[in-house]
Amino acid sequence: MTALGTAVSDKLRAATSIAHENAERSAFVEALLSGSLDADAYGRLAGQLFFVYRALEEVGDTLADDPVAGGFHDERLRRLPSLSTDLATLGVDVESLPPLAATRGYVEAIRASAADPVRYVAHHYTRYLGDLSGGQIVAHRLREHYRLGDDALSFYRFAGIDKLKRYKDAYRDRLDALRIDDSAVQRLTVEAVRAFEFNSALFGELT
Ligand code: HEM
Fold first, then answer.
1. Which ligand 1 atom sits nearest the alpha carbon of residue 168?
2. Minimum-distance ligand 1 atom for the alpha carbon of 165
3. What residue segments make up the domains of the chain, in order of their start?
4. Going by CA atoms, what residue is nearest to atom 10 of ligand 1?
5. What is the pLDDT of residue 2?
6. Which residues lie with the beta carbon below 6 Å from any ligand 1 atom?
7. pLDDT digit string (tens) for 65-75?
8. What's the start-to-end Cα distance of the chain, in Å?
9. How many CB atoms lie within 10 A of CB 110?
């Protein structure tokens, strides 16, 4: 709890709710989830996410013992290996794939957050809690509409995490237990909104 008595996890969810709606309602996401695109469109998204998760997990490794960010470090969340498997199945060669402008900005923001772990937590929260939440719906739709199988959707399966809801509740408890002052909470929420906006910008470029 902070001085105002609202839990950090509540503040984060409230601060990002409009940005979340915007991301969720972007034309690319709506088209992808309604079945009007194709498996290649998902491949293009997954290819860009490769750069995002590579940065997220490289910075996460350097902050594994950090008093603020270290509490969120969890091997079971690591997505780069599963994403690489999926990309191979989808026929996307990341070596020859250029990161889009939005991806480059996103990666730069993640790398810069290494200097301010609370901002790194914002990036961690935005992606991983999203993958554990709406990501599950996304995987379901991709499977249904584009006949993608397990070998293309392993990114959405978290081996070792059986109960996603329980995991997310514990994650929010860890956010609430952070011993950070109001200015840090402010940096956390501002950076999380930015992280959502990078995702929306990426969807915009993929349209
Ligand atoms: C693609 C369409 C999307 C759908 C259908 C969707 C759906 C949802 C749903 C239903 C929840 C609530 C789950 C719960 O209460 O446990 C949720 C939470 C969340 N989503 Fe999304 N989402 C989408 C896109 C995104 C994107 C693009 C991001 C960010 C990259 C994102 C990040 C999050 C986060 C961080 C939460 C957790 C909020 C919290 O409880 O603090 N979502 N999403």
1. 16
2. 16
3. 8-206
4. 134
5. 44
6. 9, 12-13, 20, 23-24, 29, 125-127, 129-130, 133-134, 137-138, 168, 196, 199
7. 999 999 999 99
8. 40
9. 28
Tell the residue nearest (CA) to atom 38 of ligand 1: 13
Residue 144 has pLDDT above 80, yes or no: yes
Say which CATH architecture domain 8-206 belongs to.
Answer: Up-down Bundle (1.20)
| Residue 1 in this model has a pLDDT that exceeds 70 | no
pLDDT grade for 4, boundaries at 50, 70 and 90: low
Range 143-168 average pLDDT? 97
Q: Which of 11, 18, 20 to mutate to test the pocket of ligand 1 (most atoms within 8 A of CB)?
A: 20
